[in-house]
Each structure stands twice: as C-alpha cells, then as structure tokens.
Design brief:
With about 325 residues, this protein is α/β, with parallel strands linked by helices. About 35% of the residues lie in helices and about 20% in strands. The strands form three sheets. Strands 1-2-3-4-5-6-7 form a seven-stranded mixed beta sheet. Strands 8-9-10-11-12 form a five-stranded mixed beta sheet. Strand 10 and strand 11 form a beta hairpin. The protein is globular, with a radius of gyration of 20 Å. About 45% of the residues are buried. The chain binds zinc ion. Zinc ion (ZN) binds next to helix 2 and strand 12.
C-alpha cells in the first residue's frame, strides 16, 4: 500500500478501490475507506508512517457501497474522526443492512449479507441537500460534485489543487468487459454524469475502479459504450417475445458466460431494472402482468428495423 502525491495537498492510495487523501489547515481527510477493518487498519498505518502527526479530521464517503465504507468503523473507532456523507447515502452507511435490503426488497437472507454487500455501520454527519447540488463539503475547500447514475446520491470530490475524485462514475474497460452489468440505478443520470466529467478540467482524474489519468475522455467513451451495450442487450433479449427481468438477465448472462452468486445476481438485476426504466421512459419497452409475472415487451409503435434511437448516449 502506497500514498502517491497528485497535488500540493492531495494524495491517493491505489488499490482495488482507489482512495483519496487531502490535507487542509494541518488536518487530514480520507476519501472513502476500502472494504473492511483490515483495510482500515492498513490505511491508518500508512498515514501514520507517511503523514505523521497530522490528525485525521474526517472521512468523506462518496457513496455507501461496502467497498467504499467498509473501513469506516475501524478508522472511526481508532481515531474518533467524523464520517461525512450525503443524507441518503449516509443513512445507508449508518444502517448498512439496508444495502442488502434494497437488493432483496425485504429483510435479506444470509447469503447476501457478506462484507462485499453489508459493511460494519458507522456514525455519519450529514452534509448537503437532497438531491445534492454542487457545493462545498462542510467548512473545507473541498467541493462535492453530484454524480448520478451508479447509486442513490453519489458525489465526486474536487480539491483546490485540481484533483477530481470520481467515485464509481466510471469503470476500467477490463471490469466492463468482465462483468458487463456494472451497478447502475439511473441510466439517464449516468449519461449526464459522463458528459459532465468529459467537459470538466482537472489536473488529475481519480476513478475508484480505474487507473488515475490526466485525460479522462477515452475512459468516458468506453463507459458510454458499456452503458449502450447493456441497453441494447436488454432490448434485444425481448426480440422473440416478452420476458421477466430475471429472464432477461438469464438470457444476457448465459450468452456472455457471466458468472454470479446470489448477491452478484441481485446487483445485476438492479442494472437490468434501471435499463428497463430508461427504455420504458424512452417509449421503447413496456411492462405488463401476465400469469402473476411482471413481463416486459417491445412497445408496438417502436417495432421497426434495427435498435431504437437513443443508444448512442442521448437521454430519452
Ligand atoms: Zn465501488
């Protein structure tokens, strides 16, 4: 584990989840904390070695997924630091059993309560409005930038020395190719976020799940393609007739040799659902209930040759 400097007061820790670190007025701020206690312990050890004597004032959580908040509980217990999050994500960070609850839409069963889904809870201080508008994070020079798409109220963090932490707004092409359905809850929002990132100047861009870069445009392009691929796959799965959400996932998953356990399957279903909502808002597909199943079909008037308009990234 290594602390790499990107700006005068900004560093990052490369890893499975790239974490951020920032200093202002002699105090430190961590941007996300990794997966678990062990990761939290390693981060604190690293900061203690590299930034000795700088107290950790707060953790800034970009969103509440377990791989971003999993080190919170350990770090807060050891240092007494605050945890800052937006209201919706903050509630999930304090009540982490709601993460698998959202996947299952009821109190979850054991198999989806592993640490990759449900982190240890921590105490959060909320900031910002709901929905979040761009603005300062508490009394610091850090700016929160809303990043709709991946989760409920995720945001990126801009530092005054030109580093833009992008949370899970973008994924590495290898991750896109391997998993296909990267978790998304709002497809229109995801496209808006990609366009915003593309038009933003920064000295460094730091996605959590892709290498840091000075030029983000190629990664934006690849992620836009990834979204369009899933939308098309979901739409095409309905070509031979109506299917349920689960059947759509099964078709696409089997055709692309995707592997998944129960938790991963439910995460993928979240993405199928958000693409169905997006296609439905664009009048491409419609739901109906038959034989006690919620089924989806192409919408009649859109039944023409080739995929419908809008797959190139335009919002319906
Ligand atoms: Zn993540």
């Amino acid at each position: 584990m290594e602390l790499k400097q990107l700006g005068e007061r900004t560093w990052y820790v490369p890893g499975r989840v790239n974490l951020g670190y920032y200093e202002e007025d002699g105090r430190g701020y961590l941007i996300d904390t990794g997966l678990d206690d062990e990761y939290g312990r390693k981060i604190l050890k690293l900061l203690n070695e590299e930034r000795k004597g700088v107290p950790l004032r707060a953790v800034v959580n970009t969103h509440s997924n377990a791989d971003h908040i999993g080190g919170n509980a350990f770090i807060q217990k050891r240092t007494g630091c605050e945890i800052w999050g937006t209201r919706l994500e903050g509630v999930l960070t304090e009540r982490t059993s709601l993460e698998p609850f959202l996947l299952w839409s009821a109190w979850p069963f054991r198999e989806i309560r592993g640490k990759f889904i449900e982190a240890k809870p921590s105490k959060v201080t909320f900031f910002g409005t709901t929905p979040l508008t761009e603005g300062p994070i508490m009394d610091t020079a850090l700016t929160a930038v809303p990043l709709p798409g991946h989760y409920l109220e995720m945001f990126g963090v801009k530092t005054p020395d030109g580093v833009f932490f992008l949370a899970d707004a973008l994924f590495d092409p290898a991750i896109l190719a391997k998993y296909r359905f990267c978790v998304m809850v709002d497809i229109a929002g995801a496209y808006r976020t990609l366009t915003m990132i593309e038009g933003t100047e920064a000295a460094w861009f730091v996605p959590c799940h892709a290498p840091v870069t000075r030029d983000i445009r190629e990664l934006v392009r690849q992620n836009r393609e990834g979204l369009a691929w899933v939308s098309e796959a979901v739409y095409d799965a309905l070509s031979e007739g109506p299917l349920s959400r689960e059947d759509i996932l099964s078709r696409v998953g089997m055709a692309n040799a995707l592997e998944m356990d129960a938790a991963h399957l439910l995460l993928n279903l979240t993405s199928v659902s958000s693409h169905l909502t997006w296609l439905s808002n664009g009048e491409k597909v419609e739901p109906f209930v038959k034989d006690c199943r919620l089924l989806w079909r192409h919408k009649e008037k859109e039944e023409k040759e080739g995929p419908p308009d809008g797959f190139s990234g335009a919002c319906p």
